Amino acid sequence: MTDRAEITKTWKLFIGGAYPRSESGRVLPVHDVNGHAGGRAIAYAAHASRKDLRDAVEAARASQERWAASSGLLRGQILYRLAEMLDGRRAELVEAVRMGGRLGRGKARLEVELSLDRIVSFAGWCDKLESVMGGRNPVAGPFHCFSQIEPVGVVAVFAPDEHPLLGFLSLILPPLACGCSVVAIPSASEPVPALIVSEAAPSSDIPAGVLNVLTGSHEELVPVAAAHRDIDAVVAAVPAELATTLQVGVAENMKRVRLIDPQAAFMDEDGWNDPRAFTGVTEVKTVWHPIGI
Amino acid sequence: MTLSKPSWEYAPAPESLKVDIAPEYGLFIDGAFRVPRSGRMFATINPATEEPLAQVAEADAADVNDAVVAARKALKGWRKLPALERAKYLYRIARRIQERARELAVLETMDNGKPIRETRDEDVPLAAAHFFHHAGWCDKLRYALPTATGADPRPIGVCGQVIPWNFPLLMAAWKIAPALACGNTVVLKPAETTPLTALRLAEILQEVDLPRGVVNIVTGAGATGRELVHHADVDKVAFTGSTDVGRAIATAVAGTSKRLTLELGGKSPNIIFADAPIDQAVEGIVSAIWVNQGQVCCAGSRLLVEESIVDEVIEKLRHRMRSLRVGNPLDKNTDVGAINSRAQLERIEGYIRTAASEGATHNSVSDAALPSRGFWCHPCFFTGVQPAHTIAREEIFGPVLAVMTFRTPDEAVARANNTMYGLSAGIWTSRGSKAYEIARQIKAGVVWCNTFNQFDAAAPFGGYRESGFGREGGRAGLAAYLA
User: Fold this and answer.
1) To the nearest whole angstrom, how far is the Cα of A67 from the nearest Cα of chain B?
2) CATH number assigned to the domain covering B24-264+466-481
3) Which distant-in-sequence residues (6+ apart) come within 8 Å of A49 by Cβ?
4) Which of A221, A206, A232, A190 lies closest to A198, judged by CA?
5) CA atoms within 13 A on the CB side of A264
6) B85: which DSSP letter?
7) How many CB atoms lie under 10 A from the CB of residue B393?
8) Quick check: A145 and B253 CB within 8 A?
């Protein structure tokens, strides 16, 4: 078999349910550092431009209301289906996680198992978040007053290099579970685990546009996301200077910005399976109606 | 024999309580009032008479620093106090506000210009209720926002809070009560035109022996607020006010670890469907836009009426508008009081001129006499308003209503959501299923179905989109003050 030439893959963007190349034509090399001094470019991934990001936001916006209007039960089944689809690709995921050289085989396997479990866990949140975080408000007057938990809308996610699969999923699952559409920019150096997720998305019945995945430079795309007026929230595990750029972008359209330490303990299951994960991607809507007239 | 035409005018019914107002007020720092290091004072006036009420200290950077240092020093003891002990202070504050309610209502009306009926029945009771409600949360935070370890959630630290002039005491309560309940300490800056009730609240804090430094109150204008927001030892900034200032604050805290919540402007829709109870809806329009002279962030300033009933609604609205009594805010029969300041009145008048010049039609009862002194604006509404008109897009913060129509529920939702804001909305229909479906589709933090402008300490309040982020009230409001 050694004579056979490998079929090296070019990973593409995932926008609006399709897999286009970057409109810019640029690509990023994907390195496998295991057993290769300095790493070896084993594949290429599209290098998204600001135009690709804007296109992805458009696709996300177009899909969001319908995704939000679908029942929590349905969203939960779709996310659970994502876990089912990815479970069959565990070996591939383990290899993809190992490729970056951060984790050995044992740790990579653990990362993949925790990742699949996290999908299952958040699938369960879809129809329970409101029971836990919303509810009837006991107001003093004769009113039926309740607070419902709603998705903020279109969310941009910048995932960390650390834990290229688990970190990515920990950031995209809360907005997806509550009914947001997501434009996710995974680790630029280790994008393959996230791209495998993007390939499983359509077959899990995640509607086109609800999850978009763009491989590209965080330095290049963070300022574009910060200034974009149709992004409602940003969840980002980025270094301090990029975090500040995002915070300045709040003034643009009052987008919600949730910053996460890139070194956060993503493997801590209790810490992540917590309704606080929905901070910044949900809104509380309080509805009043009189009683008795 | 000729019968004279009966007159149905109301006799004046002024509130008789006389409130003591000191000639000068210092800054409330570390449990005591003191003169400002700045050495500067400014006048706060009664907007209904333009008479000065008192001289108030203007805090500069050094004064703000003193207040933040006091709050930092007090933090350790306050957060370590057993939760139920902390609660008792908040209960005491609530009780003292209730006991001094009439005095606070009169003082608020004098400093702000809003009718005594509102301060007496809404502002002050709600402020007391806010402290009473949050007092009970102090020892229940671990159930409100459970942590993975089961430990009590931690306070954020020193909170810098900047509040507006439209509900001065109520906004102070909205800011201080949850902050204290969660174990934080506070530096509060009231608005420069309405500092007096916050300073009276400081007296109450002294009366209840609140540990010194837990709440500090620094008066001043925008420069004082900027000093507070920029102060390096403030852990959390909470601001209620205009979206423009909110943007500046968001920029100022970027790159710091400060936590931020913003409650900003609005251009809220009030939607009347043809199947609505029309008379109730007309009352709802009045309370949506003419309460507090329309100087309400969540005012229902865009009226969207289903086309088939627009003539009936406008006729009833015109009739109802004629019975609104504009004048002395201390008169118990007054419905519409004074605009808070000359600057605000000029801003409102500018919008009224712009609306007319853009082609909308002005509807008012402007022939009725207004007092010769003070800042007054007749309630009014504009018909023939297009969505692109300035008064359909920009927050006016005055008793000016823009009336537009729609044909289908989808069009109503599209028009309602056609704004950068998202603070509140009103929906009037007799069909429950329709009300809740429209409520779901509206992008706003508070939706009032067949009512408007209801507030409660137990009900989260706050905006979507450019109306800011974070909630005040209820369990969701606690999250803004916990680490």
Assistant:
1) 13
2) 3.40.605.10
3) A22, A23, A24, A26, A216, A220
4) A206
5) 23
6) H
7) 15
8) no
| Residue from B85, B101, B256 nearest B180 by CA | B85
For an interface test with A, the pick among B140, B242, B268, B449 (most A C-beta atoms closer than 10 Å) comes out as B449
- The domains of chain B are located at 24-264+466-481, 269-457
What interhelical angle do A105-125 and A90-99 show, nearest 10? 120
Q: Is B263 a catalytic residue?
A: yes
DSSP B41: E
Other beta carbons less than 10 A from residue B283's beta carbon: 15
Q: What is the pLDDT of residue B317?
A: 97
Residue from B257, B428, B437, B456 to probe the interface with A (highest A Cβ count within 10 Å):
B456
- The partner residue sitting opposite B254, judged by closest CB among A152, A248, A287, is A248
> Read out DSSP for A46-67?
E---HHHHHHHHHHHHHHHHHH
- Domain B269-457 belongs to what topology? Aldehyde Dehydrogenase; Chain A, domain 2 (3.40.309)
Known catalytic residue at B307: no
pLDDT at res. A204: 97
d(CA A168, CA B350): 51
Q: Reduced to 3 DSSP states, what percent helix, strand and coil does chain B have, rounded to the nearest 5?
A: 40, 20, 40
**Residues shown for chain A:** 293
For residue B7, what pLDDT is reported? 64
User: What residue type is assigned to position B240 of the chain?
Assistant: T
What residues pair up with B404 in beta bridges, in sequence order? Answer: B304
Q: What is the pLDDT of residue A168?
A: 98
Q: What is the pLDDT of residue B368?
A: 72
What size, in residues, is chain B?
Answer: 483
Q: What pLDDT, on a 0 to 100 scale, did the predictor assign at position A37? A: 57
Q: So what's the pLDDT on residue B1?
A: 54
pLDDT for res A42: 81
d(CA A280, CA A247) in angstroms, rounded, equals 13
- DSSP string covering A184-242: EE--SSS-HHHHHHHHHTGGGTPPTTTEEE--S-HHHHHHHHHH-TT--EEEE---HHH
What lies within 8 Å, CB to CB, of B361 at 6+ separation is B382, B383, B384
Asked if A162 contacts A263 with a C-beta cutoff of 8 angstroms, the reply is yes
CA distance B155 to B75: 10
Quick one: closest CA in B to A292, which residue?
B450
Q: Could you report the predicted ipTM of this complex, rounded to two decimals?
A: 0.96
**Regions of chain B where pLDDT drops below 50:** none
Tokens representing A23 are 């409109």
Place of tokens 């009014």: B380
pLDDT for position B286: 96
Walking along chain A (293 residues) 10 residues at a time, the average pLDDT comes out as 79 98 95 70 92 98 98 98 97 93 92 97 97 96 98 98 96 98 96 97 98 97 97 98 96 95 90 88 98 87
User: How far is A85 from B325, CA to CA, in rounded Å?
Assistant: 68
A49-290: CATH topology is Aldehyde Dehydrogenase; Chain A, domain 1 (3.40.605)
pTM: 0.96
Residue with tokens 């801003």: B347
Terminal Cα distance for chain B, rounded:
80
Q: How large is the C-alpha radius of gyration of chain B?
A: 23
d(CA A178, CA A172): 11
Q: Which of B280, B447, B456 sits opposite A140 (nearest CB)?
A: B456
- Half-sphere exposure of residue B247, counting CA atoms within 13 Å on the CB side? 10
Residue B34 contacts A, CB cutoff 8 Å: no
Give residue limits of the domains in chain A. Answer: 49-290
3 state SS of B359: coil
Q: What is the CA radius of gyration of chain A?
A: 20
